[in-house]
From TrEMBL:
SUPFAM superfamilies: 6-phosphogluconate dehydrogenase C-terminal domain-like, NAD(P)-binding Rossmann-fold domains. The lineage of its organism: Bacteria, Bacillati, Actinomycetota, Actinomycetes, Kitasatosporales. It comes from Streptomyces tagetis. Residues 160-287 form the 6-phosphogluconate dehydrogenase C-terminal domain. Keywords: Gluconate utilization, Oxidoreductase. This is Decarboxylating 6-phosphogluconate dehydrogenase. The active site is at residue 164. PANTHER family: 6-PHOSPHOGLUCONATE DEHYDROGENASE. It comes from the Bacteria.
Length: 290
């Protein structure tokens, strides 16, 4: 199958390689000429046979909108656009409507796999009409991990990115739990080999996971994580998950707390904790650190 791929960064570039390895023809475009197969989007579209399929892997928001606006004028009725970035599901509905007005199909694809996707495959959660999903199945099958699982038609347009958003919210909470457990082990006087405790959990325990494996990798590189600053960004999907929970009246205490923990990580001298310390000193005479 032929497919165009817009955005050849860490994931997009690896996806191009995996698809080519499966025998598909991929024409890639990136604003970085060193990565690109063609000089521009016009050349990418002209290099594909109709009906065309173009997969977009650029940052969510304005960058994605810009590419879709361009593709809407270059593609023809019967062609399909796939948004495989981390777009918000509400943007999918807007993009689908805009492209549908021109007879162009739209599929949203939540993609998980990160820098390991080339080797292990990508978990794919896709949303859209059956006819568009069916047309793209050879691509999904090539990208997903080997075996029966790793790809799902989650529902209508928006369902793919909504499912990926919830996936990332769960990821936030799991990572926070590992981080809290690691800190407690590091603080305990009786435990003097925290890294090997984490390693022992990799076999036969109910908390074993790929994230645990990655935690052990990180501890192998830096035994006490002393080279890192305790600061963690958020991609936006954690926020969207919490907002969706409010909209649907679904309690998400663990995921919400993990999101707020990331916000707290950005405060070297937390104003809230200064107030807590002041109050503890006022009502109980507890010591404070100047």
């Amino acid at each position: 199958m032929q497919i165009g791929l817009v955005g050849l960064g860490k994931m997009g570039g690896s996806m191009r390689e995996r698809l080519r390895g499966a025998g598909h023809t991929v024409i890639g475009y990136d604003t970085n000429p060193a990565l690109s197969d063609v000089p521009g989007l016009v050349d990418l579209v002209q290099g594909l046979d109709r009906p065309r399929a173009v997969w977009v892997m650029v940052p969510a928001g304005g960058a994605t909108q810009h590419v879709i606006d361009q593709l809407s004028t270059l593609l023809k009725p019967g062609d399909i656009v796939v948004d495989g970035g981390n777009s918000r599901w509400t943007d999918d509905e807007k993009h689908a409507k805009e492209l549908h007005a021109r007879g162009i199909g739209f599929v949203d694809a939540g993609v998980s796999g990160g820098v390991w996707g080339l080797q292990n495959g990508y978990a794919l959660m896709v949303g859209g009409d059956d006819e568009h999903i069916d047309a793209l199945k050879p691509v999904f099958e090539a990208l997903k991990p080997d075996g029966p699982y790793g790809y799902v038609h989650a529902g209508k347009v928006g369902a793919g990115h909504f499912a990926k958003m919830v996936h990332n919210g769960i990821e936030y909470a799991i990572m926070q739990a590992y981080a809290e457990g690691w800190e407690l082990l590091e603080k305990a006087d009786s435990v003097d080999n925290v890294r090997e405790v984490f390693r022992s959990w990799q076999q036969g325990t109910v908390i074993r996971s790929w994230l645990l494996d990655l935690a052990v990798n990180a501890l192998d590189d830096d035994h006490h994580l002393e080279k890192l600053r305790g600061w963690a960004d958020d991609s936006g999907e954690g926020r969207w998950t919490v907002e969706a929970a409010v909209d649907n009246a679904v309690p998400l205490p663990a995921i919400t707390a993990s999101l707020y923990a990331r916000f707290a990580s950005r405060q070297e001298n937390s104003p809230q904790m200064r107030m807590v310390a002041a109050l503890r000193n006022q009502f109980g005479g507890h010591a404070v650190k100047k």
